[in-house]
Amino acid sequence: MQFIDLNAQQRRIRNNIENRVKQVLDHGQYILGPEIQELEEALAAFVESPHCISCSSGTDALLISLVALGIGPGDEVITVPYTWISTAEVIAMLHASPVFVDIQPDTFNMDPDRIEAAITPRTKVIMPVSIYGQCADMTRINAIAAKYAIPVIEDAAQSFGAKHHGKRSCALSHIGCTSFFPSKPLGCYGDGGAIFTDDEALAEKMRQIRVHGQKVKHQHPLIGMNGRLDTLQAAILLEKLEIFPEECTLRWEVGQRYNRLLSDIPGITTPFIAPGNDSVYAQYTLLTENREQVSSALRAEGIPSVAYYAVPLHLQGAFSDLGYKPGDFPIAEKVASRCLSLPMHPYLTAEDQGRIAAAWVPNLDR
Ligand SMILES: Cc1ncc(COP(=O)(O)O)c(C=O)c1O
Fold first, then answer.
1. 213 CA → ligand 1 middle, Å
2. Could you please report the per-residue DSSP string of 47-80?
3. pTM given for the model
4. pLDDT digits (tens, 9 = 90+) for 195-208
5. Which of 158, 175, 177, 233 to probe ligand 1 with, by most ligand atoms within 8 A of CB?
6. Mean pLDDT of 228-254
7. 181: Cβ below 6 Å to ligand 1?
8. What is the three-class DSSP state of 365?
């Protein structure tokens, strides 16, 4: 059994993808070719956001956003310690400081109740993460940010397609950033990402940063980077986007089936989805008291499982200069010590899910 079976999707749409790729090979505009604009329009329409800027990865989407907001040395960005490293890495890359706040014990997303205590005159951005496919409480986070006039960037690398009170992830705040890494809910066949914003001037600046600060060729009024999405990846994403709404529904169904199979097993806490949210289950992550035992029992049956994220960011060597220590974020640390992600993709069969649940139960009897 595979953790994420990308081939099942490819078998469905391989011909269409090949046709799309062939069109790019025929016109030969590999950099910012026509598929880029077509994709940006399609993504903006899907998310219902006025502006989409495609880019080279989810990490670069976050980096371009922070650069566009002018974040630099001395600035603070409030974020969470329980996420993939990119979220805080881009802040540190700009010589600004990540300021962590703990997560909620049930959704594993930023706890809005802890934000105000972390705000200082140097706070320039609040950057929640919509972890595992479920949006953070963007309604409350936006309200707090508005009170202090601080922009919000949703790190929606894992939640593309999810909804929060009827609105899509990425369109919930000033800026939303996502990733098209192959295993993400909407993935390409390499690296890719996108930024969404409702601010036209900011969108223009981000487009400029994406291409070495250029607006007019060979004129560089701004410092930028090479942050473009490849035309070939845009072509692949256009085909995948066609079936993405259906895949979001399939993901939800796979998640609900897991809940039914696993929620009565002692020692397991299945994922909690907050009222007003759904989830695209980028990961199906539960909490278990005996992770090592369970994951080795699953492995013995040929079932992969992964502990995303076993070490929270405040305890990573890369952030040792921030001076955090064990115990600073007890909820993130507790979740990190118990989390376990199971195989998850839209084409996971009921039979395979049954095998996973069956492998679990005898293990607990031992
Ligand atoms: C929460 C989060 N933020 C940012 C990223 C970075 O995305 P990418 O790998 O496309 O750079 C990821 C990817 O794993 C992620 O999960």
1. 24
2. HT-SEEEEES-HHHHHHHHHHHTT--TT-EEEE-
3. 0.97
4. 999 999 999 999 99
5. 158
6. 98
7. yes
8. helix
